[in-house]
From TrEMBL:
The lineage of its organism: Bacteria, Pseudomonadati, Pseudomonadota, Betaproteobacteria, Neisseriales. The chain crosses the membrane at residues 30-52, 253-272. It comes from the Bacteria. Residues 1-20 are annotated as: Disordered. Keywords: Coiled coil, Membrane, Transmembrane, Transmembrane helix. Residues 219-246 form a coiled coil. This is Uncharacterized protein. Residues 1-10 have a biased composition (Polar residues).
Length: 273
C-alpha cells in the first residue's frame, strides 16, 4: 500500500523581532578615523581656523558617522592667537554631530540627542549648522531611502521668541517638519519621512573646508612668494652695496682731489714768498 504524499504546506516561520538600535556611545568607541581637514570660520571679518575630524564605525547592524571640531587659532592682524583648554579639544557633546544608521529598521537617527551645540567661542558662527548639514549630506549619499527617527527638541527656562524662531529655523532650513507637544512650541519632535528629502545646506561664504591638496597649493604659493621676496631683497641689498661702494669711491676721489688742491695752493704760496 502506497503512502500518500504529504501535500500540506510548510508552516511559515514568524519574522524575527527587530533588535533595538545599538547604542551610539558604544559605536563611537568603535569608530575609526577617516581623516582630518582644516575648517575656516569668519567672525566679524576675523578668520578662525580649526581641525575637523571625521570618524566612522560599521557593524552588522549599524553604520555610525561622526564629525568633531576643535579650535586651533584666530588671527588679528599678523598675530595668531591660539585656542586653549576646552576650545582646543575634541568633545563628544559639543562642537560635534553624528548620525546612526540602523539596518534592521532601515532608519537613521541624528545626534547628539540634546542637539548640535557649540562652546561659547564658536557659538553664533554657523558651526552647528555646518556640522549638522555634513551628517545629512553623508547619510543622503549612503542611505537615501531610509526613514528618519524623530528627534526631540525642548527648551527649558525663560526662552524668548527670537530664540524659539532661531531653533526652529535651524531644523526647518534642513527640510525637517515639526510635531509640537504644546501650543507655545517649547517641546516637540522634528521629523521627515525619508533621508533623500533632507537638504544638507550651510553658509558656504563664511565656513569653508580646506583639504590636503588645497593646503599643499597654499604652502607652495607661500614658498614661491617667499622666494620671490628673498630674491627681491637680495637684489636691493646688492644694489645698495654697489651704491655704497660707488659713494665711497666718490668720497675717496674727492678727498684725493682736495688733497691735491691744497698741495697746489701751498706750492703756489711758497712760490710767491
Amino acid at each position: 500500500m502506497n503512502t500518500p504524499a504529504n501535500t500540506s504546506k510548510p508552516v511559515p516561520q514568524p519574522e524575527a523581532e527587530l533588535r533595538a538600535p545599538e547604542n551610539e556611545n558604544t559605536l563611537a568607541t568603535l569608530a575609526m578615523p577617516l581623516g582630518e581637514t582644516v575648517l575656516t570660520l569668519t567672525a566679524s571679518g576675523v578668520p578662525i581656523y580649526g581641525i575637523l575630524h571625521r570618524s566612522r564605525a560599521m557593524t552588522g547592524q549599524s553604520d555610525f558617522f561622526r564629525l568633531q571640531f576643535r579650535g586651533f587659532a584666530r588671527t588679528e592682524g599678523n598675530q595668531w592667537l591660539h585656542y586653549a583648554n576646552d576650545d582646543a579639544r575634541f568633545h563628544t557633546s559639543y562642537n560635534c554631530a553624528w548620525v546612526r544608521v540602523d539596518h534592521p529598521s532601515r532608519s537613521v537617527t541624528f545626534g547628539p540627542k540634546s542637539g548640535v551645540n557649540c562652546v561659547e567661542a564658536f557659538t553664533g558662527l554657523g558651526l552647528d549648522t555646518f556640522l549638522f548639514a555634513q551628517t545629512i549630506s553623508w547619510v543622503k549619499g549612503a542611505y537615501p531611502d531610509y526613514a528618519i527617527s524623530p528627534g526631540l527638541i525642548a527648551m527649558t527656562g525663560n526662552v524668548s521668541e527670537e530664540e524659539k524662531l532661531r531653533r526652529n529655523a535651524f531644523y526647518a532650513s534642513q527640510g525637517f517638519q515639526f510635531d509640537w507637544q504644546d501650543a507655545a512650541q517649547r517641546t516637540g519632535l522634528y521629523f521627515k519621512d525619508k533621508v533623500s528629502r533632507l537638504l544638507g545646506v550651510w553658509d558656504k561664504e563664511h565656513i569653508q573646508e580646506v583639504g590636503g591638496e588645497a593646503m599643499l597649493q597654499s604652502l607652495a604659493l607661500q614658498d614661491e612668494t617667499r622666494a620671490a621676496l628673498e630674491e627681491k631683497v637680495n637684489r636691493l641689498e646688492s644694489s645698495c652695496s654697489s651704491m655704497k661702494s660707488a659713494l665711497q669711491r666718490e668720497r675717496n676721489t674727492s678727498q684725493i682731489l682736495m688733497g691735491v688742491l691744497i698741495i697746489g695752493v701751498m706750492l703756489a704760496l711758497w712760490a710767491l714768498i
